[in-house]
Design goal:
single chain, 223 residues, alpha/beta, Rossmann fold, seven-stranded mixed sheet, two-stranded antiparallel sheet, binds S-adenosyl-L-homocysteine
Length: 223
Amino acid sequence: MYLVDLEDYNRRNSEREAMVKEQLIFRGIWNEAVQNSMLAVPRHLFVPEALREYAYCDGPLSIGEGQTISQPYIVAYMIEALNPSKNDIVLEIGTGSGYAAAVLSRLVAMVYTIERLPSHAKRAETLLKKLNYKNIEVIVGDGTRGLPDKAPFDGILVSAGAPMIPNSLLAQLKTEGRLIIPQGTKNAQELQLISKDAHGEIRKRSLGAVHFVPLIGEQGWEG
Ligand code: SAH
C-alpha cells in the first residue's frame, strides 16, 4: 500500500514538473514564485477522479455542472498578470475546483474566493481544508457584487467570462490594485488587466483572447 502511494506520488510529481517546464516556462511564465506554486499544488486532486490521468494535460477539464478547471497555462498567466506579493489580500470570483485559489494562496497573505454553486463551493472547501490551506476562505454567493465586508483588495481575479466590468469590483480595488477579468461575449472574451493608479485613475490593457464559462449574476450574465 505504502509503495503504491509512493509510486503515485512520484509519478504526479514528475508530471507536474513536465507541466511547469513545457506548458509554462517554455511559453514565457517567468515569475519563479508562480512556477513554484504551480509545482507545489497537486492539481490531480482538484479534478474528478475519473479524469485524474489528464490532470496535467495542456487544457481545461470538466468538473461537473457545466463548469471547468482552467488550463494550467491560463491559471499561471492570470496569476502572473495579477502580480501578487506576499502581503496581498486577494479576492477570486469563481472558485470552481479551488485549484486557482490554492495556487494563489501560496503567493499572498489571504484569498477570499466566491462560488455561486453551493456544491462546488462545498467540495472545494473540504479539499482545501484537507490539504491544510489556512489562508483561503470559500464563500457561496454572487461574486459580481464583490465582497464589501473584506474590501478593498490588492488584487481581484475573475475566473469566469463577464459581459462588462462589474462596478462593485472596481470600487473594491485598492489604489495600485489589479483586477484580472475575461470580458466579452459568452463564447469569446479578452483577458483584461485593469489597474487603479495612485490617483485612483483606472487603466485597462488587453492580455489576449481567452475562453471562459460565463460569469452569472447581478452584474454578469443572466442565469
Ligand atoms: N478557478 C476555478 C475555475 C473556475 S470555472 C478553478 O481553478 O477550478 C468558473 C466558476 O465560476 C464556476 O464554478 C462557476 O459556477 C463560477 N461562477 C460563475 N458566475 C459566478 C458568480 N457570479 N459568482 C461566483 N461564482 C461564479
